[in-house]
Structure formats: C-alpha cells, structure tokens
Amino acid sequence: MPKQGEAFLKGGIGCLLAFGGMAACAVLVGGTAHIDIGGAVILLVIGGVIGLIINAIYRKGRKDGGDRDPNEPPGEN
Which PROSITE patterns match (predicted)? Predict the structure, then answer.
C-alpha cells in the first residue's frame, strides 16, 4: 500500500478509536453515546486528512534533514 494510503487509514482509524474511547468514557460516567454510518465515515475522512497532513510534514522534514527512507528506491528523494 502506498504511504499516503497507509497514512490515511492510520489517521482515520485512529480518529475513530479516539472518539470511541471518549464515547466509552461518557457511557462509564452514566451518559449515552451512539454513532451512525454517516458520522463514522466523516470521522474516518477527517482523521485520514489529518494523517495525510502529518505524513507530508514528516516526509518533508526527512527530505530537508537529508535522511533517506530505506524503503524508497534511489532517486525518489
């Protein structure tokens, strides 16, 4: 999977897990929580975009610092 797709999925799933944890905390203190498919998709997309932004910043920093990613073929730096 390309690095962008991996970053999108990690960010999206991380966002869903973070909000799931907050919902679990709300339920534990006596509140309620629910999510529908539309809300889950929106959270996945928002988290994915955040993941892509973080990945772009990280990769730019590696290029500026002169570090090579050992997984990249030569010439793509």
Answer: PROKAR_LIPOPROTEIN (PS51257)
Structure tokens at 52: 């892509």
Domain ranges, residue 13: 3-63
CA angle 35/55/11 to nearest 5° reads 15
Encoding tokens for residue 47? Answer: 């988290």
Cβ atoms of 45 and 12 within 8 Å: the answer is: yes
Residue 36 lies in a domain: yes
CA distance 13 to 54: 15
The pTM score is 0.71
